[in-house]
Amino acid sequence: MTMAKENIYISWHYTTHGTAFLQHQLAAFWRGELQLSEKPLYKEGLCQLELSEAFSASRQPGFLFDRVYYLCAEQAVLDRLSLRRLSYRKNMYEVDKAVAETQMQEVWREVIAQDLPSWVDEMAYVKAHYSSRLGDFEGQIWRDMQHYPIDSQLAWFRRKSPAAPYYRARFEAVHFSQEELPNLRDEQSILAVLQGFFKNILAHHGAEANYIINVSLGSNETQVAWFVLAEAGLLPPNCRFIKVYDVKTKGKDPRFKNFQIQEIPSRLISSLSANLYEHDNLQSPLRRLADLKMKTYIEQGFAILILGERGTGKSRMISRLERENRKVLAINCASFDDDNKAESEFFGHAKGAYTGAEQAKKGLFEEARDGILFFDEVHHLSKRVQGKLMKALQTDENNNYRFRPMGDSQEQQSQFTAVFASNKSIEELRELLLADFFDRISQLLIELPPLRESRDEIEKDWETVWTQLRFAPSYPCPKSPELFRWLKKQPLWGNFRDLQKIAIYYKAFLDLPKEAQQLEGVEQPLDFAKKEFKAYHGHFPKQTKLPRAFQELFDLELIASETKEKTYKILEKRYKKALIAWVEENFPAQQVWEILDMSESSYYKMKKEG
């Protein structure tokens, strides 16, 4: 029997955001606002007032984390970081809306004036002096939670918070002594305690658990430490980073603004270097054109279709939009083995819509509101799903998409930019897709050129790929003229993926022991990379689009209509012309006459005669 993976939540405590804010984060998952699917976590407009009551309500559609680890420095260390808890309490009762509405200003003024050590002592004081207002006071404690000492906050979360019945046994405060962590501005100490912490929890939960780490709380140095550990490969593979922050201008209560939860790359530096080839200084006119088109088209709101061979960077073009702080949701259309699952993923479903639909679920159309929805490998969609999408992708007079979740009678609407991608040609897509669906998704078209059509950038592309693979500093990027001459001659049918394979072979040879290098029969890493790449990857593509001349050559109907006029020499001439066109389309100019097995002069003579 396969055991479900554990879900682990990890966050630092910070003086400006206390355990009540932690409760609100957990409540967002409990209410089903976010699910741990393969999609990036993203939810905006989370209302703290509503979430403060989520655990007091009936069963919610979301889930509980199996374990919550709350990382805490000692109070003296926290006080060195910020003393706002000592000063901000003095006027809390004057600015808090709920305190005013319930006429609790006098109670809070007197409580704060006593300067009691914890909320427990404050409740005892209220019970003794304002017994009739004890219930109101207890219900408002969370509103001032960040101003209590850390031990008092932890006691409230375990004993009195609405989350306590659910998380008391799942919650663990991880205390770092002042000797271990003397300063939250000391990166070295932070890295040391985090490494020890992860060593312990990995021994308990294993590397297969899902680890959700809120990197936005703590200090600037704790945030840096998370990224350093990720870049060094010292975190489990299933770690996902989120940032949680409030939107200062929005919220039902002046003190408690709405907040959002957004997943961010755990290996931020690598994710940036992996896309260095996409920048404003592109040399290739074709790549520059594709880049400029995307920058322009993405602002217009029309459906965009990106075409390009495998490995040309279609998904990376979308990733760049995420780095521009745009909201992007992506789905691989090849992942659906069932039309109902595809429909549910796109439009969502009501509870009981089909067998196994135990809870209502939001679809991508709703979650992508005001953002970008990316449909990768769109050619894999079935005709039935295409038909469903075709109707939903028709905008109304306000540019809204209208859709109906499975099993729901109510139509919903959403507004986002739809971007589609495929490695098929226009001609192939017209055969694979419904005509109306193709027209709907290709309002604007962007074509990414293969590397063999932008050879001027091969040196830059090679350096980008080498950097992306994150080899150790002891393996500097090779840049020999011989290497670049060879790369420029390769068709690179896999484009950037082929460059990655070549780089991996090159570096692998350097790691081989001397005996293995000798047995391979080559002395240089480039020779080894050439040999391995030619043996396993340097073949022609299985499917290659033929030039029009080649298509006409084998057009039986056309040949039959011209049989009386054709002679052997005419057919031979026609074939040679088609063959030249095909080679010219698919190989570098330097290789054309070599592949045709003729001299350069013969090649140009035959072209002239053709």
From TrEMBL:
InterPro entries cross-referenced by the UniProt entry: AAA+_ATPase, P-loop_NTPase, Sigma_54_int
Family matches, as PROSITE patterns: SIGMA54_INTERACT_4
Biological processes per GO annotation: regulation of DNA-templated transcription
CDD domains: AAA
Any GO MF annotation of the entry: ATP binding
Annotated ranges, domain Sigma-54 factor interaction: 315-503
SUPFAM superfamilies given in the database record: P-loop containing nucleoside triphosphate hydrolases
Keyword ATP-binding annotated: yes
Keywords on record: ATP-binding, DNA-binding, Nucleotide-binding
Cited Pfam families: Sigma54_activat
Annotated protein name in UniProt: Transcriptional regulators containing an AAA-type ATPase domain and a DNA-binding domain
Taxonomic source organism: Saprospira grandis DSM 2844
